Amino acid sequence: MTITSPERVAPHHPNAANPPPRALHPHAPAGQPQATCLALALAPALILLALGLIHGPIAQPADYHAFHDARGVFGLPNALNVVTNLPFALFGAAGLLWLRGNTHGLPSHLRRCYLAMFVGIGLTAAGSAHYHWHPDNHTLVWDRLPMAIGFMGLFAGFLTERLKLSAHTSAWLLAGLLAYGIASVAYWHATGDLRPYVVAQFYPLLAIPVLLCLTPAPYTRGGDWLVALAIYVAAKVLESTDGTLYGVLAHAISGHSLKHLAAAAGAWWLYRMLRQRTPVTEAGL
Questions:
Q1: 243: closest CA among 258, 232, 227?
Q2: Fewer Cβ neighbours under 10 Å: the N or C end of the chain?
């Protein structure tokens, strides 16, 4: 008599019939090496730097520190330009508290990117207030450094999400972008040349909308990136119309003070997006 061995049956998983959909979190896109994706995303920044070398140094305008609203209140010089930085501290702190709590399963390497972003936002309150207390090139360093940190953290998080970078690649990207942002400020302070800092501040504004169109969305609320960028562009417009708005608004508030409030609103919009969005799953594509 031949005795046949019983068939091996795979252990039953309680959710085998309906496995949970896999979130499109940070793995390299199929068939597309991470290095290639990253190179394509960052190559235009190198082109901008090369064009900057051809163009020659970009100097800071001689009247950059001449803000129209220099009124003091209770002994505080340039009062409105100083106190309108307070929202940066509030939204930076809110973001850091959120990262410590429920972040809807945000991967640890994305948490590091947004940690850098919120630290930069929070420190901008102190750095910008310090600068506006006594505006000159020396205090401006402490205004630009936290902004560079915030921009680079934001951009590293965005690239990590949209290109589905691994934890290892994301960590190197964040370190590299932070080093570049800090170095761009140091280079400006040492030489007076703004070219590297201009790339650090404005290249993400150009790259983010393009990548939003070319890459799949890993999370809902992708349009909030565009809203935040639009708010920041509006802030730059307000900054450029500092004196005009100061006159139009009967010296109630200047364009530069409004720029602070608008930029802080952009930071709040990003914080709101991160809190409210949810992962996009393969089943939902």
A1: 258
A2: N
Smallest CA-to-CA distance from 218 within 64, 49, 23 is with 23
Express each pLDDT in 226-255 by its tens digit. Answer: 999 999 999 999 999 999 999 999 999 999
Bridge partners (DSSP) of residue 279 are 219
Let me know: does 188 contact 197? Beta carbons within 8 Å. Answer: yes
Cβ–Cβ under 8 Å, residues 282 and 22: yes
- C-alpha count within 13 angstroms, C-beta hemisphere, residue 173: 29
Cα 111 versus chain centre, distance: 13
**Torsion angle defined by CA atoms of residues 209, 27, 149 and 103, in that order, rounded to the nearest 10 degrees:** 100
| Residue closest to 279 by CA, chosen among 192, 208, 204, 221 | 221
Residues in the chain with pLDDT values less than 50: 1-31, 282-285
Biggest distance spanned by C-alpha atoms of the chain: 105
Partners of 219 in the beta sheet?
A: 279
